[in-house]
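Recap from last week: sequence in, structure out.
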Amino acid sequence: MRSHPRVGRACSRAGCRFVATKTLIYVYADSTAVLGPLATFAEPHSYDLCELHSARLTLPNGWSVSRLEPTQGEIGPNDDDLMAIADAVREVAQQAQAGTASSDSQDGLGASSHSKNESSQPSSELGRRGHLRSIPTDLS
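Predicted structure tokens:
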């Protein structure tokens, strides 16, 4: 059964307007295509496919396909994902508190304008966890 058009990400196949339900990734070094559940976000080198196009997938001669189906326990974030998010939030909060405390103490001691400029600029550590993404809970 095909999904309703225009709800969620569209199928990558030209002319198809149905919603994508699977993500296809090619592993050229192994001559393998991996077809799995829809990725959380679109990647440049992956293809989102609807049910019909994922079922009709054809590959070049000599290529194999790995079809990955998630088990009920794999759907949604696991404990490690949740702990990583919690640790990232704690780390940013601690850095913000440390930055505020150090700028307050520097201002009280007559710190140079150079020190004030450093504390007012965003920390390079904040960009370090750019791989974490927020996922909306309402996907309707």
